[in-house]
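Journal club side-thread
Mid-discussion, someone asked how the predicted structure for our own chain would compare to the paper's figures. Pasting it here so we can look after the session.
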Amino acid sequence: MLVRGQGTRVWDADGKEYLDFGGGIAVNCLGHSHPALVRALQEQASQLIHVSNLFFHPKQAELAEELVQRTGPGKVFFCNSGAEANEAMVKAARKAGAAQGRFEIITTLNSFHGRTLGMIAASGQERLREGFGPAMPGFVHVPFNDLAAVEKAVGPRTAAVMIEGIQGEGGVIPASAGYLLGLRKLTHEKGIFLLMDAVQCGHYRTGCFQSYERILREAGEKRVFLPDAISMAKSLGGGFPIGAVWLGEKLMDVLGPGAHATTYGGTALACAVALEVLRIIRKENLPENVAERGEELKQGLRKMSGRGWVGEVRGFGGMVGVTVKGRPHAEVAAQLALAGLLVVPAGSDVLRFLPPYNVSKQEVAEALRKVETTL
């Protein structure tokens, strides 16, 4: 039972201190109780909290502009969570394809897109649908990082392909650069849309604004890549609930009043906090910091690969996954917690290390020492 947090540390009800590398499941990008974020929340709460989308308020436009500038020409729709952002993205693709009878969305095995009825159908994990059937129709699942499988699955009813840049809940599995570029080329040729679920891997989590930018940069790839829509949440609000979907030029005018809405989406309070998150990230040069600290974390973990429970290490920046050998990953997570380090299980055998972007070199070294004690 956690009762207090400051920076990269949290304390439980018994006063025990933990190094938090779970980050609220990739949400707390600035750690806990960042003073500037607390001030921004307090100041906005004293002025205006919520008016609904029936009225205009400037913070929403300012945040939309910031996101569009970082992405590409388009528009932004605000909601409350990653699942809602993915639902809006799928609705836009279906709406655009309706006149041609296109409604199917191709997603990948092992993917995770949320826990609404629509998004458990979209996710490529059967266990998510158990007990909630019948599943919503209109989703086709193919293997991840397999371009030929996508091409084979595209048909006259296909409206879009939706993937994560890095499968998060599936086990921190990055898309390859060739897969991303191949999907973009294929979807262009077939006249369908490419949708990116960046809820967990986006918003500077990898050291770049979007994970596909980091993946392409690591591969030395110079070709331009821009999907047709991108869903966002988690780190977008740094702990305050907010979701968003960026819709590119082909989709940005598909949804309008009467076609899609949400009561709480893009409140003045949520947008003020998200704007402050972006300001802090820029002011403190956090993309560079999380990229460097992430490499130190990966290298330290890789030195332990093959010892005890530590298997393969993968990921980028503040999103690093380690496969667990020899025992259940949840059991190892519990042992790490006893050692004072919080991490998050993923897939069937992976532990996620999701530190805040302002994590220090010393805190990474401390986390590695705590891993060492569990070996």
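Post-session note: The two ends are 26 Å apart (CA to CA).
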